[in-house]
């Protein structure tokens, strides 16, 4: 299986150490005065930082981060919570759904550029280069992709950015709207209609399960649309499966969502094998720019939900 399958999974692994500085009390200072000083220090610290319980343990992070770098996947989560980004990974940078014109492109190898950007928080995935060095630049928090549900992941980003309430409010509203849209779509296309999500990358084609972005979480988890049995067999457990173009008819549902990379090989669409797929013949293949569909953050999810409503419910 090619690592290119999940292009946005660049990344970091986190080992955080927080340094405490315990000062001895001067024995000549009266006890009430020492207590007063300690209280002042505690108030100042708590107003500037919070302790986030990361998957690698507690870490002290800014209470109100102002210069965040995202090294993979979570740029849209940060943008949705209205927190300033100063650096993002290449895959986020090329996403036309994100407003990142003034944000620098960085990787976990571009340490000098990261230092110049002076971040107060770094976020990424739990596979990394230069973790220790990154952590010396700014508190660095990583997440294991897929360890949390897609909405749980946004809530965790909310906690990290000290915006848990805002994240939860969006989650509640989004679930309500997606569930309602699913009921309407199933009513129109039928409870037994199946949907397949595919994406071309380089010279291969991939089919996805119910938790690998590309709109899969909305379609299968929130809207309760059905996955073809062959897709369940091949992709549900692992999340994705690579197949040859010739096998596409075997996994094709009544509807196909085609997350399309126009700069990769799309010649299979000109073959008779493709043209004879029932979903193709019935004009039930919905194409979308893959670069807009890679992720599952709130900005992308809102776009995906609108896309599905417009295409499934069109007259």
TrEMBL record:
Pfam family, one: Peripla_BP_2
Subcellular localization(s) per the UniProt record: Cell membrane
Membrane topology annotation: Lipid-anchor
Assigned keywords, A-Z: Signal, Transport
GO biological processes: iron coordination entity transport
Keyword Cytoplasm set for record: no
Signal peptide span: 1-22
This protein's GO CC annotations: outer membrane-bounded periplasmic space; plasma membrane
Taxonomic superkingdom: Bacteria
Domain called Fe/B12 periplasmic-binding: residue spans: 66-315
InterPro entries (UniProt xref): ABC_transptr_periplasmic_BD, Bact_iron-sidero_bind
Family: Belongs to the bacterial solute-binding protein 8 family.
Name this protein carries in UniProt: ABC transporter substrate-binding protein
Species in which this protein is naturally found: Anaerobacillus isosaccharinicus
Upper lineage: Bacteria, Bacillati, Bacillota, Bacilli, Bacillales
